[in-house]
Amino acid sequence: MKLTDIKPLEYWVALQEELHTRFGLNADVMDHEGKRLSGNTWGNDLCRAIREDAKGFGAICAPAGQAFTQMMQQGKPFAEECDGGMMRISVPVLKDGELLGAVGGCGLVAEDGEVDEFSIDMMSGLDAERIAEMAPKVHVANEEKVKEIMVFIQGKIDEALS
Questions:
Q1: Distant-in-sequence contacts of 127-136, Cβ < 8 A, 24+ apart
Q2: How does pLDDT run across 101-113, given as a tens digit for each residue?
Q3: pTM score, whole prediction
């Protein structure tokens, strides 16, 4: 079974857009293999710059995506950081115990954390000055906000499954 067997692609795309607009996430809906159902939404310019930089994508986004896909396979919600210091929030879509995918996004920084400008500079081809300009614009999420996002996503998943 696939996510689009439950709701049409338009439902998932609308949810992705709502997450982006409401919470400032680089929101996405993933299938059970960790592949996006639809394109990107950009919650901040820094993530977009890292992803568009071949070196940054290969060193930060690609390994994080692989790790997060493995975590998603466990079928439990999570909030974890990438090597750039920004977090991914993911809530699984489970139907009758089967993992169909996950809803969430990345590109927020934990209230008690920080964008790791040094690592981004070392791991990408981006200029340190440009990184320093973009880093303060990344949305901050405290523990309460992360829980709010997860509860919101879970509610939308429950709605889709009912």
A1: 130/49, 131/46, 131/49, 134/44, 134/45, 134/46, 134/49, 135/46
A2: 999 999 999 999 9
A3: 0.90
